[in-house]
Sequence to fold (90 residues):
Amino acid sequence: MSVQDRYQGSAGTATGPARKLRVVTPHDTNELEYATNGILAKVAGDLSIVAVDDTDPVTVPIAAGQVLPIRAKIIRATGTSATGIVALIS
Fold:
């Protein structure tokens, strides 16, 4: 039996639940496959992020299990110490 998705016809939104999850390997220049609407880390640390409308990175702290509601296009290796990073995508 396949899963029933009661929201299948609903469009994804920046504040809605994630429809895709991607494990992130930080890289200084490679853009993510999709812009995120949230970022989760399994292990606390810092994230060096370039947001979708920015060109310069900003470093932000993240706690283990915390979800940051950030629309990011790059999660940089330099300056990132958090691990187990997952991109939430709607």
Observations:
- The mean pLDDT is 92.
- The beta strands are 20-23, 38-43, 45-51, 58-62, 67-68, 72-76, 83-89.
